[in-house]
Amino acid sequence: MTNDKVFLAFDCGATSGRAVLARFSQGKFSTEEVYRFPNSIMEAGGKYYWNVFSIYGHFLACLSDLAGKGIRPDSIGIDTWGVDFGFIGADGTVLSLPRAYRDPYTSGVPSRVFEKVPSDELYGVTGIQVMDFNTIFQLYAQKEEGFSPLEAAGRILFMPDLLSYMLTGKMVCEYTDASTSGMMDQRSRQFAGGIMDRLGIDAGKFLPVADPGFTVGTLRKEIADATGIGEIPVVAVAGHDTASAVAAVPAADANFAYLSSGTWSLMGIETPSPIMTSRAREFNFTNEGGIDGTTRFLKNITGMWLLEQCRAVWKAEGKDYGYPALVAMAQAEKDFAGRIAPDDPRFAAPGDMVCEITAAAGLGALTDAQIVSCIYHSLADRYAEVLDMLKGFAPFPIDKLHVIGGGSANGLLNQWTADRLGIPVVAGPVEATAIGNVIMQARAAGLVNDRWQMRRMIADAVEVKVFNPNG
User: Fold this and answer.
1) At CB < 8 A and 24+ separation, what contacts does 452-459 make?
2) What integer pLDDT is reported at residue 1 of this predicted model?
3) Is 241 noted as a catalytic residue in this protein?
4) Residue 411 vs residues 217, 383, 468: alpha-carbon distances, Å
5) How would you classify the pairing of strands 264-271 and 286-289?
6) Rounded CA separation 198/341 (Å)
7) What angle, rounded to 10 degrees, do the helices at 368-393 and 305-316 form?
8) Would the CA dihedral through 267, 269, 273, 277 be positive or negative?
9) Bond prior to 274 in cis (omega within 30° of 0)
10) Cα–Cα distance, 26 to 28 (Å, whole number)
11) Cα dist from 452 to 4, 61, 176, 201, 428, whole Å
12) How far is Cα 132 from Cα 207, in angstroms, rounded to an integer?
């Protein structure tokens, strides 16, 4: 690499978004967070929405800030959560706000869908585990409601594609995000029109699915002029945030499992093709799109949600524990024997997580330190259970676990996980999603050729820590 390049990642989550700037020079890169903004679900008329216009406004504010500092990125990429979508009218107008996946309007919808398309048939085509908020169930619920924006829509765009459209005026349907919908045929990698027809969902409202790594368009002239940033290209990166995170795994070869660790944990393997056997369905594994046509074969696991909800209870009692204190508490009770099943539905929306965990452990009253130890040990145990499942599906030996995301900074949990798994745990990068976003932009610019070269560059740029079993 001879020319310096600068790429901007907009990484949008359900509670906050941020902009990360990456500078590439001489085969190396560095990243810097340059803007952060809040995001939240809003209620209106008994329905729950994402304020996409607020997100868009923050994008413009960030671009104005950068222009004011004389920084002009070579391209922009956007990643968000999956499944949610917005509507575009025949004249190009954004119709309504996108409904939010936590809106309970999909409760009970899967069973009604399965009356028309049996669940085993749906899984055999889409490979997606059943969750009430999957796009297919949202659209079916909206059809039942007679939701006006759906009826008036000319096109339906997933969240990263909707935001790209608002910036460029160009429409795309990027593969990794479309793959989370529960409507994509995993083998053809296009929408399953036959199944959608049986449910009264118009597949013609969606664009053909396209691989990540191409240029969507340039910023609209109005935006370029108003912000002073110029007409910068917008690249369709791996738009689903977990796909971007997995793209940033600094692995040297294919013999690994990954754990994207945060409020929720996503544990899986990267495979050349989907795994949609009856056994995969029985174990509730999901198949989502990755880069280079790969599949992210993974399982959703309750993660730091358990601890975050306990922290909220303790804070209300006047005990505001920081993460270093929590780690010290767990270490002090490292031999505590209490365990829970992290994925038990009782922990999904408890009134009091501390009471719920205490009851589930069945050992009487617990100290705060014992509860933290119980959570960490129980997560490590669950990771070991899921890894054993993955070994039964993986077409390769799993030699190590790469932990990415915020949870990769938790050294004690990483060590306990390595001890339970019996294989090394490689922790980092913490900022995996943003790094995956910018590295795909670097690839679109011709700076890297494939995911292995991307991963070698990441391994050279980020600091990781290896936790060996019983280390």
Assistant:
1) 454/247, 454/248, 455/248, 455/249, 455/250, 455/251, 455/252, 456/252, 457/27, 457/28, 457/29, 458/248, 458/249, 458/250, 458/429, 459/250, 459/252
2) 39
3) yes
4) 42, 15, 12
5) unpaired
6) 38
7) 170
8) negative
9) no
10) 6
11) 21, 35, 18, 38, 17
12) 24
From 65, 241, 343, 344, active-site residue = 241
> Within a 10 A sphere around the Cβ of 442, how many other Cβ atoms?
23
163: left (phi over 0), alpha (psi -120 to 50) or beta: alpha
Q: Which two tokens stand for residue 9?
A: 């990642």
- What pLDDT is attached to residue 264? 85
Average of per-residue pLDDT values in the chain: 96
| DSSP per residue, 84-146 | -EEEE-TTS-EESPPBPTT-GGGTTHHHHHHTTS-HHHHHHHH-----TTSHHHHHHHHHHHT
Cα distances (angstroms) measured from residue 145 to each of 47, 130, 206, 373: 12, 21, 20, 46
**What is the C-alpha to C-alpha distance for residues 208 and 262, in angstroms, rounded to an integer?**
32
Distance CA 338, CA 369 (A): 12
| pLDDT tens string 435-467 | 999 999 999 999 999 999 999 999 999 999 999
Ramachandran category for residue 428: left, alpha or beta (phi over 0 → left; psi -120 to 50 → alpha):
left
Looking at the predicted structure, is the pLDDT value of residue 431 above 50?
yes
How does 346-365 read in b/e, with b if 16+ C-beta sit within 10 Å? Answer: ebeebeebbebbbebbeeee
CA-angle at 436, arms to 78 and 421, nearest 5°: 135
* Residue at token pair 């880069």: 291
Phi, psi torsion values for 222, nearest 5 degrees: -60, -40
* Residues 6 or more apart whose Cβ sits within 8 Å of residue 409: 427, 430
- Quickly list H helices, 172-215: 175-178, 193-198
- Residue 359 phi, psi dihedral angles, 5° rounding: -65, -40
SS3 20: strand
CB 281 within 8 A of CB 275: no
Distance, in Å, from the CA atom of 356 to the CA atom of 336, rounded to the nearest integer, reads 18
Tokens of 292: 């280079």
The answer to whether the beta carbons of residues 264 and 241 sit under 8 Å apart is no
Cβ(179)–Cβ(240) under 8 Å? Answer: yes
Phi, psi (deg, nearest 5) at residue 89: -75, 170
3-state secondary structure 291-318: HHHCEEEEEEEECCHHHHHHHHHHHHCC
Contact 139, 150 (CB under 8 A): yes
